[in-house]
Amino acid sequence: MTSQYYENDRPKSLQSIWDGLFVIFRTKAGFTMNTKSNKTTILTNEAGTTAFDHQAAPRLIIAGTGSGAGKTTVTLGLMKALAQRGLRVQGFKCGPDYIDPTYHTAVTGRASRNLDAWMTSPDYVRETFARASAGHDISIIEGVMGLYDGKDPLSNTGSTAEIAMVTQTPVILVVDVRSMARSAAAIVLGFQQLEPELHIAGVIVNRCGSAGHYTIVKKAIEQMCGIPVVGWLKRDEDMSIPERHLGLVPAIERGELEPLFQRAADVLLEGTDLDLLLELAASAPPLQLQTHRTAIENDTEQPSQATPQQKHNFTDTCQPVIAVARDAAFNFYYPDNLELLEAAGARLQYFSPLAGEGIPAEADSVYLGGGFPEEFAAVIAGNENFLNGLREAVRTGMPLFAECGGYMVLGETLTDREGVTYTMAGIIPAQVQMQKKRAALGYREASAVQDSFLLKQGEVLRGHEFHYSTMTYREEGEIPYAYETKGLRGLKQEGYASGSVVAGYTHIHLGSYPAAAQRWVHHCNAYRQQRTL
Known about the structure:
Elements: E1 6-7, E2 10-11, H1 14-17, E3 22-24, E4 32-37, E5 40-44, E6 50-55, E7 59-64, H2 71-84, E8 89-94, H3 99-108, E9 113-115, H4 122-133, E10 138-146, H5 160-167, E11 171-176, H6 183-194, E12 200-208, H7 211-225, E13 229-234, H8 248-253, H9 258-271, H10 274-282, E14 321-325, E15 330-332, H11 335-343, E16 347-351, E17 365-368, E18 370-371, H12 377-382, H13 384-395, E19 400-403, H14 405-409, E20 413-415, E21 421-423, E22 430-434, E23 440-448, E24 460-467, E25 469-473, E26 483-487, E27 490-494, E28 496-498, E29 501-504, E30 507-509, H15 515-531
Parallel strand pairs: 7-10, 7-11, 8-9, 8-10, 11-12, 12-13, 14-16, 14-17, 17-19, 19-29, 20-22
Antiparallel strand pairs: 1-2, 3-6, 4-5, 5-6, 15-18, 20-21, 22-25, 23-24, 23-26, 24-30, 26-27, 28-29
């Protein structure tokens, strides 16, 4: 097929490629224009609602019939192939996962974003998508599990299908066609009919035995389903994405998976019509987008979700500082969380415990995210500057928030899979033990058991839990739990909240309750004022 988008293998101007895709995001009457810059017009009405007029990036969702169908391979190969053509690619991941966005970021050179309409809201997802897509040539969204798999087996909640409908994005369905022919058409037809509002725009078939096998399934699917099969991937045992073992993220950061990404692109390009995929991406309709002020004026009410837009009016000299641990041991952070803290007025300062760094002297709070501290337990245990800094922060009442891996480091000891035990910060009276079997996985609604710098009692944040370790508290005394969490298997109390510490296994998303970010920064500012008296 002759490309209408490229001349001499280089992209034409964006105006000619994506002509006609400008969209005005006006969802309410009464907007007046107050700012215009390049391709963006910001309009505001009396209620403080804003709409945006800018180019909506062409977009696709890569979904699978189930886990293991090959959607990650297709996603990474497509991102790499498009980047090699000179396009600016923005990646997204459906759901709460941290690993796949790390792949995307490594391939595209741009921070990938999570889109989760259960942890946040449909409006939040749309605006996050629009903001992150702005200025890029194409957005590629990787699905989660099977297309219709999510939080609830009786609805689309938390599924790739929900994100596709919320963002009005065409779906490319990846089907594993091993040992089947016309039956592949029945699978695709069933996926089409389950949700009529969903737009499955095309199919990529994976693990074909031969070109002849591909021709058979292509004819069957196109005859019965009326959509194009845009490509195929042959069976390739060497083309498997590594298991989500510990140390995977450091390997990505060192560039060790670059040959795998290139191989994915090469395999995809051998049998896929990239130009047709671009046409399908360009067929995405304009998004209807609306945002609201994010300033939380009434702290007592659970506000609607909103994305970061407004900065608190702190001067540079009095701006509270949140120290964020960020290296191979601590690297699981939702970009939205960091941006919401900045929007609330904080300045973020990153530091690396693995590099021997301690908590920055100007810090007014500490944020320890998830990651793989067990892989670097010896290094962490040897960084007394870091561990003593945590102890001193707690002694002085500095707000300290830790989740999952960060939570583990606050315990007294950490025992790795080999049975070696290391001394940690000792802030939480508990021992952490790694195990081979997964300890927890799933969405969580985390309700505060008590007041803290993050939440008032009874307020709720949504998030996700995934870990292979257990935290065993000493028997004496009552455990000051941070949250009562609700998941698929019911209610449980988890985490730790005492004094200025809030910690737990749950990875929370501040977009589910932006007031928590505002309150956190408020307490940081109060701490800063107190220590500068």
